């Protein structure tokens, strides 16, 4: 990147032109709001004659939004240009979150950057424009529009379109890949309007496929499925399907559904949009929000069975048992959601993953489970012996080749886990209680035995009869012996 100081004079004139044209655009937007059209035309005609020497220049405007959708090119340009910051820039926008190691840099309003690519000189300007959605109440419902203008010689039009801009896009992709910034979007109400917009924080969830305690075979299948999905751009095009994949994660609380979502996001380096259905009031706000999500992202709807009372297709709310009497524009319907999942709206993006979670798959509306909606159903089950090995390795540093140091405990845990219904979250909590691996494993054995007793008692209770007394007695003897052993060890410690 050449700096301003080292540029030969034609480029200074070029920069001056670009900067004046950016100012003109700023002035134009202000003018458009307050000056009558006839006066505007007069002013523009004077300006045009002033700049007639620069008629061989071309300007491309890159707006942040393309209609209702995010313009990826704007974001790529923003990412690329922060690597081109030079001492001549007067105003930068800096931000830093507590977990960031470096500053996030963006260009300030009306700033300019000159770039040179394969002998083609271009000038970037950044500017913003506040547009009032409600002219009778200035300041209320104001929406900020952000633009880049890209100015270059008309003769370089083909170079810019076919070589320079693809280069910018690729560079931005490389930068994002290196920075590994994954964003977690939730939505917030705009301060001056009732419109809800996405707001993000950096997703720094430590969960990965390595740390997930689940059956290794299932884990591998999920990773293979994700890899296949990413490779299949052409396939989706060929068969005429939108390039999206739906996953339904179901299982009891604490079995790792949210952890798996974070692991998928970290694996694919996709942003996550966390959609809270209970805050959506009607289908049009759902549509607006969904259209503002970017490609290569994961849309998450947690606890789909209880996050919202979804009225059925004909407005009948199965939960209240009545027809919903709200006006259609005030309704958020199952139809609206289904339309997005596999209707026309869903094809407005590429490389989209949609994940639903539920603790009660059996309570889900059958329409949601119909083939083609959620492509993969993943049962997040109670902890398995394979899953425990992952927890032991993560929490206690006991790896497979160390198991012979704790042979009886590991064997006992394996047997107990097969019988007891415990979640990875519960066992993880046990493993956090002490740093001593031996004591910790004893704690897990004890915990699993307790859970086993609870299970035997519950089964008897549920079936309305006696529980299996001999088995219960055996389980209780087992647990007493562990507690006694611990008491003796405690006494010895003192
Ligand atoms: N399979 C797992 N592997 C590793 N850790 C897990 C797993 N499941 C749960 N945990 C631990 O338990 C905590 C809670 O798990 P998580 O929030 O992923 O469960 P969940 O299935 O989403 O629960 P809920 O249904 O209540 O939302 C996690 O932060 C993690 O420490
Ligand atoms: Mg969860």
UniProtKB/TrEMBL annotation:
Question: Which residues belong to the signal peptide in this entry?
Answer: none
Which Pfam families does this entry report, sorted A to Z? AAA, AAA_assoc, AAA_lid_At3g28540
Cofactor field: Mg(2+)
Q: Which UniProt keywords apply?
A: Hydrolase, Magnesium
Q: Which InterPro entries match?
A: AAA+_ATPase (IPR003593), AAA_N_dom (IPR025753), At3g28540-like_C (IPR058017), ATPase_AAA_core (IPR003959), Mitochondrial_chaperone_BCS1 (IPR050747), P-loop_NTPase (IPR027417)
Single GO molecular function: ATP hydrolysis activity
Kindly indicate whether the keyword Hydrolase belongs to this entry. Answer: yes
Ubl conjugation recorded as keyword: no
- Gene Ontology BP, a term: response to stress
Domain AAA+ ATPase intervals: 243-384
What's its catalytic activity?
ATP + H2O = ADP + phosphate + H(+)
Indicate the family of this protein: Belongs to the AAA ATPase family. BCS1 subfamily.
Q: What is this protein called?
A: AAA+ ATPase domain-containing protein
Protein source organism: Lithospermum erythrorhizon
Organism phylogeny: Eukaryota, Viridiplantae, Streptophyta, Embryophyta, Tracheophyta
């Amino acid at each position: 990147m050449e700096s301003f100081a080292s540029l030969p004079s034609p480029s200074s004139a070029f920069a001056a032109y670009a900067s004046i044209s950016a100012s003109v655009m700023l002035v134009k937007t202000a003018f458009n709001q307050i000056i009558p059209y006839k006066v505007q035309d007069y002013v523009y005609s004077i300006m045009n004659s002033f700049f007639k020497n620069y008629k061989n220049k071309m300007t491309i405007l890159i707006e942040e939004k393309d209609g209702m959708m995010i313009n990826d090119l704007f974001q790529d340009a923003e990412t690329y240009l922060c690597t081109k910051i030079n001492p001549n820039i007067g105003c930068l926008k800096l931000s830093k979150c507590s977990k960031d190691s470096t500053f996030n840099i963006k260009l300030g309003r009306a700033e300019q950057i000159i770039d040179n690519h394969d002998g083609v000189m271009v000038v970037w300007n950044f500017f913003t424009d506040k547009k009032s959605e409600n002219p009778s109440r200035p300041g209320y419902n104001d929406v900020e529009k952000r633009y880049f203008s890209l100015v270059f010689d008309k003769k370089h039009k083909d170079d810019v379109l076919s070589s320079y801009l693809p280069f910018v896009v690729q560079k931005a992709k490389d930068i994002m890949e290196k920075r590994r910034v994954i964003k977690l979007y939730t939505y917030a109400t705009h301060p001056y309007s009732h419109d809800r917009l996405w707001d993000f924080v950096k997703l720094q969830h430590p969960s990965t496929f390595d740390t997930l305690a689940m059956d290794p075979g299932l884990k591998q299948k999920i990773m293979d499925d994700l890899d296949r999905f990413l490779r299949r751009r052409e396939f989706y095009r060929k068969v005429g399907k939108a390039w999206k994949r739906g996953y339904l994660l179901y299982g009891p609380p604490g079995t790792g559904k949210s952890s798996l979502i974070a692991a998928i996001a970290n694996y694919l380096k996709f942003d996550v949009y966390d959609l809270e259905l209970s805050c959506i009031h009607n289908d049009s706000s759902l549509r607006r929000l969904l259209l503002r999500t970017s490609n290569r992202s994961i849309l998450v709807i947690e606890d789909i069975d209880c996050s919202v009372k979804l009225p059925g297709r004909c407005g009948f709310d199965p939960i209240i048992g009545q027809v919903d009497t709200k006006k259609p524009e005030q309704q958020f319907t199952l139809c609206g959601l289904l339309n997005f999942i596999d209707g026309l709206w869903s094809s407005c993006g590429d490389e989209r993953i949609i994940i639903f979670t539920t603790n009660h798959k059996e309570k889900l509306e059958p329409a949601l489970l119909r083939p083609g909606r959620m492509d993969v159903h993943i049962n997040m089950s109670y902890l398995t012996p394979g899953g425990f090995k992952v927890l032991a390795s993560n929490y206690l540093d006991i790896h497979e080749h160390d198991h012979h140091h704790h042979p009886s405990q590991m064997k006992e845990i394996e047997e107990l886990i097969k019988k007891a219904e415990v979640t990875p979250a519960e066992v993880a909590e046990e493993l956090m209680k002490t740093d001593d691996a031996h004591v910790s494993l004893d704690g897990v054995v004890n915990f699993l035995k307790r859970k086993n007793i609870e299970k035997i008692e519950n089964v008897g209770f549920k079936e309305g009869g006696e529980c299996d007394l001999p088995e219960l007695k055996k389980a209780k003897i087992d647990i007493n012996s562990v507690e006694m052993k611990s008491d003796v060890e405690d006494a010895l410690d003192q």
